[in-house]
Amino acid sequence: MASFPQEGLKHLAETTGLSVSTVSRVLSGKAAAYRISAETQSRVREAAGAQGIVVNEIARGLRLRTTQTIGLIIPDVSNPFFAALARQVEHLARAQGYSVLLADSQESTEVEAEAVRLMRSRRVDGLVVAPVGLEAAHLQSLRAEQWPLVLMDRVPAGFTGPCVTSDHRQGTRLAMRHLIGHGHQRIVCLQGLPGSSANQERVHGYLHSLKKAGLPVDEALIIGHDYAIETGREAVQQLFRSSRPRPTAILALGNLIALGALQALRALKLKVPRQVSLISFDEQPWAELIDPPLTTLSQPIEALAERAMGLLFQQLHPTAAAPAKPKLVLPVTLISRGSVAPLTRSR
Question: Which residue range is the domain that position 54 belongs to?
Answer without folding.
Answer: 6-63
